[in-house]
């Protein structure tokens, strides 16, 4: 098996796992707004969604270095050994932050690591969006439109991940109030709004993953 096939397989595999796990997280999250469920049942759904969310996030981190390796293998863009090494360092450190945060779930460390991750996602998203848009507009530094579009959309995935986090944060306060004082129409409305915003961001991320995979595989333009 040549390097292009190997890295192409790994890259596609991470996209597939990301999508399947992401759909499962979407389904679990959607069920948390059902007021007919007991609080303990809804709490278990939130816990399962939070734990499972580590899988697509881990795939997200590993897609970066495998994508860089694939880029070099198919000669889309000339890569230096330093760039390859940097992509692996960034990807593995990012993965370590994700796994450490998942292991520290519920503690202050997890919240701090998530802030670090969000800052990185905001910056990385900006870099990929700017790089992709500039290449689409000028043909440089990437002269293949399909690859430039893929980079642009990959940048949007970073921002959709941030939107998921921001959208779900308003869920916790009314959910905690339900645990202490019981359900109320106002609290359920706040929970539904938070979940709905989160689901929109999740759906956007999943659609982007599918489109990116399609462009990378088919190269339609």
Task: Describe the protein's architecture and organization.
The protein has seven helices and no strands. The chain is mostly helical. It has one domain. Helix 1 runs antiparallel to helix 3 and helix 4 runs antiparallel to helix 5. The longest helix has 37 residues. It starts with a helix and ends with a helix.
Descriptive labels:
mainly alpha, single chain, about 220 residues, about 85% helix, 7 helices
Could you give a quick summary of the protein structure above?
The chain has 221 residues and is mainly alpha-helical. Helix content is 85%, strand content 0%.
> Tally the helices: what do you get?
7
Mean pLDDT rating: 93
Shape: elongated
**Alpha-carbon Rg, integer:** 19 Å
SSE map:
Blueprint: H1 3-31, H2 39-52, H3 54-73, H4 81-103, H5 108-138, H6 145-181, H7 185-218
Helix pairs in contact: 1-2, 1-3, 1-7, 3-4, 4-5, 5-6, 6-7
